[in-house]
Amino acid sequence: MSIQSAPIDKKITVRTVQERKGHEPVTMVTAYDALFAGIFDGEVEMILVGDSLNMSFFAEPDTLSATLDQMIYHTKAVCKGAKLPLIVFDMPFGTYTTPEQALANATRVFRETCAEAVKIEGGREKADVVRILSENGIPVVAHIGLMPQSVRAEGGYRVRGRSEEEIRELMADALALEEAGAFALLLEGMKSEAATRITEAVKIPTIGIGAGNGTDGQVLVWSDMFGFFEAFKPKFVKRYLDGAELIRQGLRQYREEVRSRTFPDEKHSY
Fold first, then answer.
1. Which pLDDT score is estimated for 7?
2. Largest pairwise CA distance in the chain
3. CB 166 within 8 Å of CB 160
4. What is the pLDDT of residues 208-221, one digit of tens each?
5. Considering 166, 188, 230, 256, which one is annotated as catalytic?
6. Given Cys at both, which of 90, 122, 237, 241 links 126, Cβ 3.0 to 4.6 Å?
7. Entry pTM
8. What is the rounded distance in angstroms from the CA atom of residue 74 to the CA atom of residue 44?
9. Separation CA 218–CA 45 (nearest Å)
10. Is the pLDDT of residue 179 over 80?
11. Spatial contact of 153 and 97, defined as CB atoms under 8 Å apart
12. How confident is the model at residue 231 (pLDDT cuts 50, 70, 90)?
């Protein structure tokens, strides 16, 4: 028997997310426009305006060509549609290579959108970036494990945490990022044991994607989970809806009704 969750009726903040640690799992989905953000409003605690839009919306092979201007444009739209979730801005590739660059770009994001946090990929080598952002009032979700912005350097997508050595490296990254001020950790594409051990070791909430059930929350790309993105389906994605086929069925019915002149009928005419 499934549990029907009650709609969220209060604004979710950084503190709200932090207080969920060890108590109630956090749900997060991506969104890229006002229409779907409005549908998701009140249904999830967090919305990530992810650079995954580069693949979902622009049919690019990876996320690397997403620009700061594109991400700001989409974040403005999401903020128009969703008022209750915590909105997280995904810093695109090449916009946080140094602490100074990261601060300048994240400051622009906060000035031009209503985003309430930013997400950056990288381990302990990005601790200085996390620190300068946090010290300047910009909350950070740190992202470790499989990092899509490193896909070309890594030669593809590879699950992390397969060995004890890899788990120790991931653990060191997590602890360094927590110490630097990250308020949450996104754990992607790693063995469940690794994600569970990290979750138990840090005091900040962890959000998993392809990281098993031992994290403090989960995130999925909306077009994956609702069956709109059909190019491929990662193992960790559960499809809660066959959206693409539902739309095709609707279009076929529409086309047939137009061809048979049953639409528009009197009810749909002035």
1. 85
2. 70
3. yes
4. 999 999 999 999 99
5. 188
6. 122
7. 0.95
8. 19
9. 11
10. yes
11. no
12. confident
